[in-house]
Amino acid sequence: MIGEVRDLGPEVWLRGGWAMDFWLGEVTREHEDVDWFAWAEDAQRLGDLLVARGYEVLSADDQQLDVVRDGEEHGFAFVTRRRSDGRVLVAGGPWAGTPWPEGLLDGVEPGRLGGLECPVASPEAQIEIKRMMPVWVPERPRRRKDAVDTARLEAALAALHATDDTLVHEGSAFVNFRTYASGEDWGHGFRWLDTKHFRLPAAPLPDTGLLAALIAHEQFRDDYAGGGVLPLGRRHGPFWRRLITPAAYAPVPAADAAHLLRTWADQYGPVPEALEADLRREAFARLTPATTIHHLTGVGEDDFHDWGGVHGEFHELVVIDRAAGHLTLLVAADD
Predict the structure, then answer these.
(1) Are 239 and 311 in contact (CB under 8 A)?
(2) What are the structural domain ranges in the chain?
(3) How far out from the chain centre does Cα 100 lie?
(4) What is the secondary structure of 33-99 as a DSSP string?
(5) Angle CA(282)–CA(266)–CA(172) in degrees, nearest 5?
(6) For 314, which DSSP code?
(7) In 105, 243, 289, 326, which residue has its Cα 20 to 30 A from 138's Cα atom?
(8) Of residues 51, 54, 82, 86, the one with CA closest to residue 65
(9) Tens digits of per-residue pLDDT, 111-169?
(10) 188 three-class SS
(11) What angle do CA 145, 159, 199 make, to 5 degrees?
């Protein structure tokens, strides 16, 4: 039903528990209803569209519209903008004209849950709302689920914006198959190999800790589509960076990792000798001595960002060599 409401026409944004789950990309708990923000100017049209689709109006005024269908309730809090600075305000009721938290609806990437994408209120604004509601409305006590939701959002934001110096970036390499092609040879298939090399910390960390440090590192904020590394980047390859966690990586034997890369590299026939030498140096030679290798398999098309999917193939391996004190982030892809 969330997708149906989203597609009615009037602009709407999820808020509350479902907004959190869409932003996190997972269902964290059961929800009693679905809460939304909508523009006050769309109130009549929104109500008419919902009624036409079988929703029953439970209550309606200039502050809120509540409807139900098949036992599922939806509540729409109406907002408007202040002309002087565009700040989002409460549209009606006793709090009409009161500003909602800064950045409530502006510049927020859509949330995604499964294959469904939907606009959401910003996580920062949701944290402020959950914290301040008992202050704004004293008769409404702080609920345990609000404290839990706040903790989840804060942890996700901390991971998203983390800057971690646990891993020291020592250099990168880029092997472009097209560079080795000649004439009208299209066997390169617009493929390339990108490697980023890091020095491990002196104090040992488990693999999950190293993967978390890698995800938090600035070098991980690379869309691998020409944009390069962006200090505040929200994308990693075709995926939203916030949806990648250490759990998205699965350990893989060196032989299986080598087979994956060989199948990818030779899919149009054997590669030129010079290219083969560079692939061995940058990729294959790192696999055999590795302590562990992790393959990014726990994300897929449902986790693509707004223009994810530009790569025909996208293979990612994290190669950890504890004896050498190195970690290599290896991406084999095409565009």
Answers:
(1) no
(2) 2-160, 168-334
(3) 25
(4) SEEEEEEGGGHHHHHHHHHHTTPEEEEE-SSEEEEEETTEEEEEEEEEE-TTT--EEE-SSTTTTPB
(5) 20
(6) E
(7) 105
(8) 51
(9) 888 878 999 999 999 999 888 877 777 777 777 788 888 887 887 776 665 545 689 99
(10) coil
(11) 155
Residue 167: closest CA among 207, 214, 127: 214
Joined tokens for residue 70: 């098949």
Identify which of 284, 286, 277, 279 has the alpha carbon closest to the alpha carbon of residue 327.
286
Q: What are residue 68's DSSP bridge partners?
A: 56, 73
Identify whether the C-beta of residue 249 lies closer than 8 Å to the C-beta of residue 296. Answer: yes
Question: What are the structure tokens assigned to 207, written together?
Answer: 């693999």
| CATH architecture classification, 2-160 | 2-Layer Sandwich (3.30)
The count of C-alpha atoms lying within 13 angstroms of the C-alpha of 152, restricted to the half-sphere facing its C-beta, is 21
Sequence-ordered list of residues with C-beta below 8 angstroms from that of 264, at least 6 positions apart, any chain: 191, 313, 315, 332
Q: Are the C-beta atoms of 123 and 15 separated by less than 8 Å?
A: no
Parallel, antiparallel or unpaired: strands 111-113 and 116-118: antiparallel
What does the DSSP 8-state code read for residue 47? H
Query: How much is the CA Rg of the chain, to the nearest whole Å?
Result: 24
- C-alpha torsion sign, points 216, 218, 220, 221: positive
Quickly count: other Cβ atoms within 10 Å of residue 99's Cβ: 12
Contacts 24+ apart (CB under 8 A), 170-176: 170/197, 170/198, 170/199, 170/326, 171/196, 171/197, 172/196, 172/197, 172/219, 173/197, 173/282, 175/275, 175/278, 175/279, 175/282
Amino acid letter, residue 147: A
pLDDT tens by residue, 65-122: 999 999 999 999 999 999 999 999 999 999 999 999 999 998 888 888 887 899 999 9
- Counting every residue written for the chain, the total comes to 335
What is the pTM assigned to this prediction?
0.57
**Which residue, among 276, 269, 310, 278, has the nearest Cα to 185 in the 3D structure?**
269
Longest dimension (CA), the chain: 76
Q: Which amino acid is at 199?
A: R
Q: Check: CATH 3.40.1000 for 168-334? A: yes
Whether 168-334 and 2-160 are alike in CATH topology: the answer is no
Please check whether residue 237 is in contact with residue 224, taking contact to mean a CB–CB distance below 8 angstroms: yes
